[in-house]
Every structure is written in C-alpha cells, then in structure tokens.
Amino acid sequence: MASTSAVHAPAVRPVRGPRSTSAARPRLAIVAAPKTAGSSMPFTILCTLIVTATLAALLYMNIQMSDTSYEITRLQSQSQRLTEEKQALTETDERLGTPQELERQARELGMVPVTDPAYIDLDTGKIIGETSSAAQTEVNPELAPVAPEAAVPPAEIYDKPTTYHGMGNEGV
Amino acid sequence: MARSRSSRRTRTTQTTGRPRARAGAARMPQGRLGAPAVRHRLLICLIMAAVLMISGRLVWVQGLDASARAQEAIDQRTVTRTIPALRGDILDRNGTTMASSVERYDLWVNQLQVDEYLQGSKDAEVTGIDAAAQELAPVLGWSVSDTKAKLTGDRGFMYLQKNVDPKVRDAIISLKIPGIGADRVADRIYPAGSVGGNILGFVGADGSALAGTEYSFDDELSGTDGKTSYERGAGGQIIPTGTQQTTPAVDGNDLVLTIDRDLQWKAQQIVAGAVDKWEATGGSAVAMNARTGEVLAMAEYPSYDPNNPTTEDGQYLGNRSISNVFEPGSTGKLFTLATALEEGTATPESQYEIPYEQYFEGERIKDSHYHPDQKLTLAGVLKHSSNVGTVQISEKLDPQVRYDYLRAFGLGETTGVQLPAESAGIVHPPEDWTGRTRYTTAFGQGYSVNALQMVSAVGTFANDGVRVNPSLVSGVRQDDGTVRPLGQPDSTRVISSDTAATMRGLMDNDIEDGDNNASVTGYATAGKTGTAQVGDDGYTASFIGFAPADDPEIVVGVFVFGLDTFISGNTAAAPAFSELMTFTLQNQGIPPTGVPGREYENEW
C-alpha cells in the first residue's frame, strides 16, 4: 500500500487525507464481545472456605486431642484414687477376716469352740459321732477365757495408733 | 538536581510576585529536606542485615542444628517413669491372702523450704515452721514439738515417715506445705501377722526377699518392672501428638500354699500354750495330709510377725520345724519295729523278757523308769516304750539294714520342702556306730532329725508304707483361677502295705480310746510319745500320731524343746497333739470312721 500512494502522490494530494483514511480504516466486523471471565469472587470464597475449614478442623482436632489428654490425666488420677480406695477396703476386709480378729469377735458374742462335732452321712442319714451342746453359752461374754489365745497377737501393721484424722477426701 | 530545581522555582516566585502564600515555603529550613536517598540506603542496609541475621539464624536452627535442638526440647518435656511390677500374693490352700503387696507413700521433707509456709498469707496468725508443725502433727499422730523438731534444720531431703497410707498422704499433700512431698512405694503386708510368719518369710525395705517362701519362690513372686515415657505438658498432662513408649510391667505370680490359715493359727496357739505351760524354750507343731504330703500347718513358738521382723533384738527369724535338729527319742522306736516286722525277724506277738536294765556287750541299757522284770510282747514293748525291749528286737537285725531303713524313712536328708535353711539332720553310717551308738540308735538316740522329717517319716505308716515328701507349695495361681503345680512330690515305698497296717495297729494299741492324753474324742487315734535329752539344753518332748487310726488322713506331730527337767512326751506334748488333731479333723471335715481302736496282747 505504501508504493501505491507514492505513484499517485501529486494528484491525490488534496484528498490524500480522507482517502488514505478510508483506505486504512480496518474492516470492522461485529464480533461477539469476549465473554467476561466473570467475577473471581466465588473462587476466592471457595479457597477461603477451604482454608478456613481446614484451619477450623485442625483447631478442633487439636482442642479435642488436648481435651482428651486432660481427660486421660483426670481419669488416670481417678483410677489411682479408686485403686487406693479399693486397697483400703481390701485391707480392712483382710484385717477383719484374720483368725485373731474372728476369734476375738466370736468370744465377744459369747461363742465357744466346738469340741465334739457330729457328722451326718448323707447316703444313709446316719449320725456319726456323739455331740453335746457347747458349754459356756450362757456365760457373760466379758468373762470368757481368752488367756492362751492371746499368744498369737494381731499383725503389727494394725497395732499402730490411728495416724489419720482427716475426712478421707483431701487431695481429690 | 533537586536543589537546583527548587531554587529556580523560588526565584520564579520572587520575580513573578506571586501571593504571599507561597512565600512560607521559601522560608522552610534547609536541614528538613535531608538526603532521603542516603537514608533509604542506610535503612535498607540495616533491614537487610537484620533479615540476614534472622534468616541465618533460621537456617541454623531449622536446617543445620534442627535435630539437636528438637531433641533438646523433647528431652525437656519427656518423662520416663518406671511402672513397678506388683509382687505376687501368697495365698493359703483356700485362697485366703497371707501376703500381699500394697501401695504406700514415703513422706519426705526439704527443711529449707518449710519456713515459707503461709508467709504470704495476711490473715494467718502463725506462719512458717510453727504453723506447718501445728497442721502436720495431728495428721501424723505426733506431738507438735516432735513434728517441729523434724521440720527444723538445714537438710534438703529427709524422710518424715515411711510407708504411710494413701489417705494420710492425701491429707498431708492437701496442706500444701512447701518442701513436703511423697514418693509412691510398694509395701508388703501380711494381714494375719505372725500366723504363718515362719513359712512366709519376709521382704526387706527395698523389696528384696529375705526369708521363707518369699525367698525360695522369689522367681515366681517377683515380676518384671515396665516403663513408660511420654511428652508432658506444663500441667503434667500427656501431649497427645508426642511420642509415647510403654513397656508394660509383668506382675509376679500368686503362690498358693498347702497351709490352711485357720489351722495354722490354731496350731500356733496350741504350741504357744504348751511351751508356756511347761516353761520350755520353744516348740513346733506340724499337721500334714497323710496321703498327699501337703503340710496343712507348720507352727512354732516363739515366732515373729513378718510385717515387722526386726523389732525385737535377737528374735528368731527362722523355721525351727526344719532347721532345729534333735534326737527323736522314743518315736524312733517305730522305725526299729517296722524294720523288724518288714524283715520278718519279729511279729506283734513276739515275746520278750524285759528287765529294768540289761548289758549288751558291756553297754548298760535301761528303761526310763524302774520296773520289775516284765514279759512283754512286741506290742507291749512299744506301749511301755521299753528301751531294753527295743534293743532286744534290734539285735536280730544287721546295723546296715537298720541304717538303710532309717535313710529310706527320709532321715538324714532334707525333705525337699523348699524353704531356706533346712537342716538334713545327721544319721551316721553303721561303721561309725561305735560303743553305745549301735544300741541307742534303736530307740531314737545317736542320730538327729528335724520335726518335719519325723512327721513325714511316721506318715509313711499312715500312707500304707509309702513315704511322700512333704510339700508346702501347691503351685502358682493362673489367671483363670486354676493352680499350676510346681512339680509333684516324690514318693517312695519304704515298707509293705501289710507291715504298715501292722504298725498302724501297734500305734493304735499305744493310745487307748478316750483314756489317754493324746486321744481324740470320737476317733481312734494312733501315735507314739518321745522324749530325749539334748546335751545340756534340757529335754525334747514330742508326740507324733495320726487319725483316724484305721484309715489315716491326718498326721500331726507336736514337739516341745528345751524342757528343764524330764517331762515325758505324754505329759508335755500329747495334750497339745490331742487338741491340734481334734481341730484339724474338724477343719478338714474328716468324719469318724466309727471303727474302734485295735488292741493287742501286751503281755504274755
């Protein structure tokens, strides 16, 4: 196009402007307006949501974990306390069940050792051995003889003075 | 450049004569303008240097030195704790606890810190050690002055009291006295105290087994400690994301004894009563199942409380029934008679002429009490416990044969009962039976035995001629409650079934029903007394027997040591035997057989 305008240059000078203008005008065609990319907002929100949700989940899990951890500690100390309670009860049970203690309590109730027990043969219904009612049942329990029975003393763990005067619920 | 431009502007302003408003700018001080470029560079340099430093540090900490640093942090918050293995319990034959492990606390004090108690408090009238002592004293059960003395000083660590109950520890910790703390420890308790103390033994303060069954079966009883390590937060809680490693503790096994605790207690009462009554120095009693060899009770007096084995000086912490050896005396005649019957050199009806004293190759043998010449059968020799008669019977036997039988009855060797410090006793071989020994061994002198051996040996007659080694431990309790036995006791046939039956008859003949110190109401009882002098330590009186005589279930032996004067077994030991046998038969639920005791012709 440049060479053409040079050949006709003198003649067409006056109209050069408009002509060249018209010649250079680009052929316009209606094109569809480029589709706008649309708002970036939803994507941003999505990303934000994902990040937030992740963070929230992480936070929640961490809270849960440390909560559980505290719970474990609490339960462990509860378990320890209950173990000690059970142990204390077992010890009381064992102390009350010792032969020495049973004998003492039985005598306080006025009971006496059996001397001549009789047996019943379950097959024949026969009574084996002769028995008589135990003596001393009417005796004042205070007077029941305990002399040689003091020979085996109670365990020394129970002989200590009661050292505890609290309510039993301290340190809970 | 900037300066020239601005001065030009100033000049223009002046020439054009613009309004005064512009004139103010002209008077702005030159210094305010400064040199921004230089300052920027300086600032940037500084920032760069700082960033470089920080990032350098970052690289150092995160990159180059990371693992070491992280480890240091982990080490700081990681704690490792030992999980102590619980020592197994010791139970009696019915599952009653005889020894168990419990948790206790050792209370300690840092005396340097106690004075800080209540110092910050505005409304406390008493502060410091005085206040602490006042609060602590009632909980510990001490006087205030004693408590104060314990709290005062400059020791950084001192035990206040050991082995306190968890409740006491809680009460003390809740007082929040500075410098007072508690360590958890395991303690061993024996609920029934001295009942069975000699069998159970005890453990030391550090938990190591020192005596008795605790010592012999330490491998079964003691477990293996475990440990746990975890990362710990400020509040002591476990950090959940941290590493945790736990090796669980393996608790010890529970040991089941053949002892019956009630019977053991009764036996101890009876022995104590007999020893006190006759002012002896000590005593033993053994009750045994004749068929299985299970020792139901092995009592002695004086005994000790394993909860506190070292309270009294010089108290005996062993087991007389197996460690104290003595000459059996007349109970030894049973073995001579059994040998003669088994070897066929005598029958229960064999006839002997018994003077009060008789010389055998120049050795004078006499009976315990004077009597005119007697015509006794073998049964009568046993019933009258004649030394002369027994020597006459034994003289038809070769000493080697008699020795072999004594050994076969288990004398001169340990019973295998698996308790520490058992003494085998001494039975010299026949070539050493010089002078009197050849004769005295016939009636239980010149060799020594322990109480359990004797009861086990006499039990041979009760168990139809088969000797079963006594046992004290029936096994280890499994998780499902069954008991895993720790090996079967050995049993050996010593004499024939017939001879054993004859011996039972002879021993039954020895004890008249209902009319003897040793007889048991309602039951035919068989037994033999024994008395022997023990050097200068006085006399040992004993009684060993079994019941029901026709079908024996229980063998009982009672031994009273260190009698000042000659007190026969019939006087000192037989009543205790009767009482213990009566209780054992009841305790084990053995009914009378209803068969009356056998009688032999004692004289001819």
From TrEMBL, chain A:
Region annotation Disordered: where it falls in the sequence: 1-24, 150-172
Keywords attached to this entry: Membrane, Transmembrane, Transmembrane helix
Membrane-spanning parts: 43-61
Organism superkingdom: Bacteria
Pfam families with a match to the protein in the record: DivIC
Name the record gives this protein: Septum formation initiator family protein
